[in-house]
What we know:
Order of helices and strands: HEHHEEHEH
Mean pLDDT: 76
Number of helices: 5
Distance between the termini: 53 Å
Radius of gyration: 20 Å
Amino acid sequence: xxxxxxxxxxxxxxxxxxxxxTTALLGRVNAEGFLGFWPTVIxxxxxxxxxxxxFAWWLVDAxxxxxxxxxxxxxxxxxxxxxxxxxxxVVADLKAAEGDDILVxxxxxxxxxxxxxxxxxxxxLTVFPVFLGGGxxxxxxxxxxxxxxxxxxxxxxHRPDRRRTRHSPARAAPG
Length: 175
């Protein structure tokens, strides 16, 4: 089911992203997708029990906070609170409360708001080629100012003004 996590290293990496978190912070659209799908994985045939089924159980058991101005009333999912407040305020409240890590799962609007408020302690970007090219951008105009300032790649091979990089062989001049 997760074709990109087919090695133990990939599985361990992905598991390490969510394993220590006790709270999942999601935007409404993401919550509707994640919470409509992942709980069904628990009973599915053919899922990988080491990561897919464990993640599904984690998501069901974790406290979930869904940021939404359009969902009203009681949350349609267990262990879920719907909050209509600015993202930075919600995270400040969560950090002040008892609990372990807070994990934001693929909610671009939530991630952008937290980056802008300098409330991200660790940012892990995982590219899933299946989804490449669609959805909202996290970095519209590069990284926000502050501790997220751009840095050149250490080998300087990604500078746009270089025609040849350390990783490409030199070519003989035509002649």
